């Protein structure tokens, strides 16, 4: 069934945003909503709160608040796993070995600067879409793509 997911083009890849959006559209996703935004460190800490105990958390927050990002609400059949498959392994080096055609293989640099983000479950997709777009409702979900 048609799902929604949240995609982020991170600071290390925003200069490639148009190329990445092309890949997204050619892969059959519909971009329901899109925003450019420069998050504060506080907003990044809230967005990534599930990682707050990780050793890389302060560095992740600094990175994600360093420059503007592009956030998009995507729709597609099985959008969550479909987008996660398209972006590849979290670690860009591993992505280059395992999924050389993935977005992180092409545009990511390392474990942290990995070009893009994708929601990992329906629960996080809902939370993350609401985080950036509030409760705005876009109906109906286009089903012809
Ligand atoms: P993302 O999928 O947005 O979810 C959490 C982010 O934390 C991840 O992408 C990376 O940007 C970052 N991250 C995950 N693991 C590490 C790591 N081991 N070292 C540094 N950053 C990481």
From TrEMBL:
Transmembrane segments: none annotated. It is found in: Cell projection, Cilium. Belongs to the NDK family. One of its GO terms (molecular function) is metal ion binding. ATP binds at residues 10, 56, 84, 90, 104, 114. This is Nucleoside diphosphate kinase homolog 5. One of its GO terms (biological process) is cilium movement. It comes from Brachionus calyciflorus. Its main location: other. One of its GO terms (cellular component) is cilium. Keywords: Cell projection, Cytoplasm, Developmental protein, Hydrolase, Magnesium, Metal-binding, Nucleotide metabolism. Residues 2-140 form the Nucleoside diphosphate kinase-like domain. The active site is at residue 117. The chain holds residues 6 to 150 of 206 of the full protein.
């Amino acid at each position: 069934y048609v799902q929604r997911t949240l995609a982020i083009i991170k600071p290390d890849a925003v200069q490639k945003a148009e190329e990445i959006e092309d890949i997204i559209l050619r892969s059959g996703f519909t971009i329901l909503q899109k925003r450019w935004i420069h998050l504060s460190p506080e907003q990044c800490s809230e967005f990534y709160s599930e990682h707050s105990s990780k050793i890389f958390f302060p560095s992740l927050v600094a990175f994600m608040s360093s420059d503007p990002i592009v956030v998009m609400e995507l729709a597609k059949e099985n959008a969550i796993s479909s987008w996660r498959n398209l972006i590849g392994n979290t670690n860009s080096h591993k992505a280059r070995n395992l999924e050389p055609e993935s977005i992180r293989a092409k545009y990511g640099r390392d474990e942290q600067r990995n070009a893009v983000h994708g929601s990992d479950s329906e629960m996080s997709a809902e939370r993350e879409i609401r985080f950036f777009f509030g409760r705005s409702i876009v109906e109906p979900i286009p089903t012809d793509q």
